[in-house]
Write a structure and sequence with these properties.
This protein is mainly alpha-helical. It has one domain: MetI-like fold, CATH 1.10.3720.10.
Amino acid sequence: MDSSSTIEKIITWMPSLLEASKITLLLTLASVSAALVLSIFLALGKILRVHNRNVPRPLLLLKETGTSAVRWLCSAYIFVFRGTPLLIQLYFIYYTLPKINPAMNIKDRFTAAWIAFSLNIAAYLAEIIRAAIQSIHKGQLEASHALGLSYAQTMRLVVLPQAYRRMVPPVCNEFVMVLKDTSLVSIIALCDLSFQTQKIASARASAVVYIPALVIYLIMTAIFTVTFHLIEKKLAVRE
């Protein structure tokens, strides 16, 4: 195959590849956004503590039991989703759930992928957020408690504003990893960049299409990597 013919084919394929790239980007952005919200609750739930100041003994026991249950549930969630492959989770949500209960059939492939990715990413982000929160000196927690702040107020006003700067680098790395992991959705025939590339390669009997696909993935990851690096530098200067 001569070079001019190859270039012509790549130019012909580019519109469909770029269109499929929009699905890849949208899935990544939607999944990470939803996962961030869920992961904050998981992280806070995993490290939840009860303050026993001026709390009657029966009520304290009740609160401690509820707190332990929340910690256990959050820890179990993180353990399950970090301990099983994303590919199997995607299979389970799209193919297995309808077999268990027809009412849980998710017909829209994008929605199924979004749910699977969001639930999976949340488990990883929760550990990042938990580590960032626990890196804050416990003296600040004790001072907040002494000032009469509740646990929720301490987290919202004192801990999280400091911890988020420490979360940014690992969260940005996770975003780039998710961008590449979206290629897994080709198994449920969601027309992302990976699936569209496979379709063209199969229909045209040409593996050359993987070259522009690889370049597009590289460009997308490079753009986000540079953007996140600039954000990290800006936060480092402020700190």
